[in-house]
Amino acid sequence: MSAVTGQAGAVPGHKSKAGRASSGQASSGKGSSGKASSGKASSGTAPGGHNPWLIAGVVALATFMEVLDTTIANVALRYISGGLAVGPDEAAWVVTSYLVANAITLTASSFLAKRYGRKAFFMWSVGLFTVASILCGFAWSLESLLFFRVLQGLGGGGMAPLAQSILADSFPPEKRGQAFALYGVAIVVAPVIGPTLGGWLSDNASWHWCFLINGPVGVIALGLMHWLIEDSEAAKKERRALVRRGIRFDSVGFLLVALFLGSLEVILDEGQRKDWFGTSTLMNVSGVLMVVSFVAMIPWLLNAKNPVVDLRLIGNRQFGSCFVVMMFTGAILISTTQFIPQITQEYYGYTATLSGLVLGPGGIVTVVMMFLTGRASAFLQPKWLIATGMAIVALGMYDLTRIDGTTTFSFFAWSRVYIGIGLPMVFLSITSASYEGIRKDQTDQASALINVARNVGGSMGVSLAQNILAYRGQFHQSRLAESVNSTAPAYQETMRQATQYFSEHGYAGVEAKSQATAWIGSVLSTQVAYWAYIDVFWVLGVVAACAVPIALSLKSVKRGGGAPAGH
User: Fold this and answer.
1) 81, 265 in Cβ contact below 8 A?
2) Per the record, which residues fall in region Disordered (predicted)?
3) CA–CA separation, 477 and 474 (whole Å)
């Protein structure tokens, strides 16, 4: 399902008009001689004279690999936790560190691609992602895994927007809709396969293979890219213009953004375990870095000539509202993708494979809804689709608050189906809504920021949900302990029956009573966990519900034009 997540700006490419690119891609159709300048796009070949469909296949393969990694590790967290001897909350860093690093790269991907060439930057991104994936597979500790996971996220962050630009350059306008359709199918299928594949690999081989599997795919993709992909004449001309004008990368702004997001994530991930800002040096230092980088970041980005992030876009009411809705959406999607497999494995005895299969039906529904929503967007305003989608997601979250000890596989699968119905309506529509009222030269930034919102929202959602789970678990444990009285008739009757049960199964005297006491404690702990997870789903439901009025406040847009094709 995070396929849609992975590419907020890609989906409109299903429409033929969506091939319009923001950074000169659409204008690459003609050079000074009046002929197509992007190679021979008008005659059916891409820059370099290669078949554009081969390029589309390579681009889809590389992005498939990157999107797969947004979900493949989620169901393997229990194995990672056990293999590296860390707690489940610490293992969650495997998800959040990747998302934050991915978001940081997204802010820089547009400029770096223009400055150094799309082919070069795309190959660099795929190469770093592939090497980091292999290193993740050989990680020997949580610290090493997180470091390699950050490198993997830095590599993966540039792949999605660059893929869209390369497709726009490789196909003539009348063929771009078909190219983006192929690309869209690849990015939607990847997260459907991810949880099941990750679960199967973890159960039958090792969690390491969730990362090692990217090795051969990445090597093949790199070889094909080197052979097939060439930058268009328009992209080369733009690169020469940047060099000639002496425009430099906003390294200071990039560093401040990275420092702010990184320190914020440390605080969210470690706060509960470190007792926040009490005595922890890590928390206090992270807090200072977050505040200082944020205070310095705002004036710098507002006054820099070529800021890495255009903050004025977020200040735009239309785009800012879309940014917030996308953050909420990312939080819900990534959190549920992690917490549903987590609860089914820990408290329902599911294998990792079965936990992955729980998410499968929702992923299939997502694929179907992608196409249905694409058709509906031709005659319905984005704000209505977004509001409807978030309302359905809120109902899906409410449904998950009904879990108990008898909850079945089909219950979890149906709850995920409801989410799979609602989220595509948001992801497909929010791109069109976000581009309303912004200048053409801002579309690169808009595409990057919408993707940043998704990743940052997902990372924050996982961290906050983990904190809610821990805090509410402690709360329910203390309240339940207050109500359990060893002198109460109900408790004594339960103890008597449990002791008798263990006596009949080979335990004698004091040992049977000890087993009964342990069993009651286990039942109570499980009940506490159910209540804590219910609280998490309640909060996510409220988040989804809060997005509905924000969506309804959006302006109406001109339908049928599609969105720019990203970077």
Assistant:
1) no
2) 1-46
3) 5
Rounded Cα–Cα distance for residues 328 and 362 (Å): 19
pLDDT at 538 over 90: yes
CA distances from 127 to 56, 214, 235, 443 (A): 18, 11, 22, 27
Q: How far apart are CA 350 and CA 409, in angstroms?
A: 9
First to last CA, the chain: 23
Copy the structure tokens of residue 39: 């190679």
Q: For residue 247, what is the DSSP state? A: -
DSSP 65-88: HHHHTTTTTGGGHHHHHHHTT--H
Furthest-apart CA pair in the chain: how many Å?
97
pTM of this structure = 0.79
The mean per-residue pLDDT over the stretch 339-350 comes to 89
Q: Which of 357, 378, 361, 366 is nearest to 421 (CA)?
A: 366
User: Quick one: how many helices (H) and strands (E) in the chain?
Assistant: 22, 0
Of 439 and 223, the structure prediction assigns the larger pLDDT to 223
Domain boundaries, the chain: 2-249+308-475+527-552, 250-307
Residues in the chain: 567
Q: How many CB atoms lie within 10 A of CB 123?
A: 18
Residue 286: its H or E element: helix 281-303
Amino acid at 435: Y
Contact 56, 179 (CB under 8 A): yes
C-beta separation of 103 from 70 below 8 A: no
**CA–CA gap between residue 328 and residue 471 (Å, rounded):** 21
Count of Cβ atoms closer than 10 Å to residue 259 Cβ: 18
Contact 399, 415 (CB under 8 A): yes
- The count of C-alpha atoms lying within 13 angstroms of the C-alpha of 464, restricted to the half-sphere facing its C-beta, is 22
The topology under which CATH files domain 2-249+308-475+527-552 is Growth Hormone; Chain: A; (1.20.1250)
The larger pLDDT score, comparing residue 136 to residue 161, is at 136
Distance (Å) of CA 439 to CA 445, 522, 556 = 11, 59, 17
* Helix (H), strand (E), coil (C) string for 413-458: HHHHHHHHHHHHHHHHHHHHHHCCCCCHHHHHHHHHHHHHHHHHHH
- Give me the amino acid identity at 256: L
